[in-house]
Amino acid sequence: MQNTDNPPLVNRVAQSGIITLNLEDYFPRDPIAVFDLKDYLFRGLILREKDFRQAVETHDWAQYQDKNVCIVCTADAIIPMWAYQLVSVSLAPFARLVVCGDEKTLIHTHYMLQFAQLDLAEFQDKRIVVKGCGDKPVPAAAYAEIARRLQPVARSIMYGEPCSTVPLFKRKA
Questions:
Q1: Cα 77 from chain centroid?
Q2: Straight-line distance from the first to the last Cα atom of the chain, in angstroms, rounded to the nearest whole number
Q3: Angle at 22 between CA 168 and CA 112, to 5 degrees
């Protein structure tokens, strides 16, 4: 027998048609490796072309198979631009993504590439909540970029959780 004093609980959030977009779902899944040019500097100061080319030729590039690679120089040295290019060309057959910069730069670049490939049709005229608070370091730029990309197609964009959101954008009728 059903108690008429207490109607059944209804999950209005689930019935609202709101799409929750969790940016952590786009976080890089492949391992991140660092290639540090400081290890190839002569006396820790300069990069000598002949020595560097020889080191690049004999380096085991297969260790970067299916990894995301950051090319950095953690020493205070002037590195010629061709050195970054030479390393990048050597990594290309093995690495998933190669960037010049640190891990934050790599994650930022990864998000921008992911969002550039995102099929926005599934968000057409939808109410979207971009989920906040998570366990992975999603860059602020990713939140800004997804809002920019969704704005032309979404009916509304909010930030937070479906039960407690901050409105960001609502298309005028």
A1: 28
A2: 46
A3: 80
Q: For residues 127 and 120, give the distance between their C-alpha atoms in angstroms, rounded to a whole number.
A: 13
Rounded distance between C-alpha atoms, residue 128 and residue 111, angstroms: 18
Single-letter amino acid, residue 53: R
Does the global pTM surpass 0.90? no
Backbone angles phi, psi at 75, to 5 degrees: -95, 155
Comparing CA positions, the residue from 80, 73, 85 lying closest to residue 48 is 80
Report helix, strand or coil for 47.
Answer: coil
Q: How far apart are CA 23 and CA 157, in angstroms?
A: 14
Identity of residue 164 = S
Contact 40, 47 (CB under 8 A): yes
Written as six digits, the tokens of 129 are 């909540």
Domains of the chain, residue spans: 12-28+111-170, 32-95
pLDDT in tens, 39-56: 999 998 999 999 999 999
Three-class SS state of 170: strand
